[in-house]
Specification:
Helix content: 25-40%
Distance between the termini: 79 Å
Radius of gyration: 21 Å
Shape: globular
Order of helices and strands: HHEEHEEEEEEE
Number of helices: 3
């Protein structure tokens, strides 16, 4: 009787573990959710869904100026009332997973108002993610308006590369 009970408990634990695995999101599903949460954040200005998915050492490049921004600076740039996104198209995008690193790449159209002036722009972007402590976090973002020229005149700063090392960014 003990063997039968032991076998039943073992089979139950195996079935439970299998069900839990099936309920886990794939890396692609997790990264898609993070990307869509960020798009929604730009419309709603509610950053609660996306902030936990951003690494503390996250950085991005401002698509208007090419300057490097921290997590806090990117979040702050979304919140002002003079910057309003009213809609954003978000076509399917590419996600590639390489072990504990992943890249998402795509485009999106944004419609809104900036400093009282309406705009409609198309962005091209890529984001880099890393799996840390069992969770995917967003570590780097690069985006720019489609068809904009780049410049190599910007110099990189010391935390990320050698002093005065040329970087690149969008051209003003």
């Amino acid at each position: 009787m003990r063997r039968i009970l032991g076998l039943a408990v073992s089979l139950g634990l195996l079935a439970s573990a299998t069900a839990n695995k099936a309920n886990e999101e794939s890396p692609e599903a997790t990264l898609t959710r993070i990307e869509k949460d960020f798009a929604e954040t730009q419309i709603t200005k509610d950053t609660k869904a996306v902030e936990p998915a951003m690494a503390d050492d996250f950085y991005s490049f401002d698509p208007a100026t090419g300057s490097r921004r921290s997590k806090a600076e990117l979040i702050a740039s979304i919140k002002p009332s003079e910057y309003v996104i009213t809609s954003m198209s978000f076509p399917p995008f590419l996600i590639r997973v390489f072990g504990s690193t992943a890249i998402a790449q795509g485009t999106n159209d944004a419609v809104g108002m900036a400093k009282g002036k309406p705009f409609k722009v198309n962005f091209v972007w890529f984001d880099v993610f890393e799996k840390r402590n069992g969770h995917w976090v967003w570590i780097v973002s690069e985006s720019s308006q489609e068809n904009i020229k780049i410049t190599t005149k910007n110099m990189c700063d010391k935390p990320y590369c050698a002093a005065n090392q040329p970087g690149f960014s969008v051209k003003q």
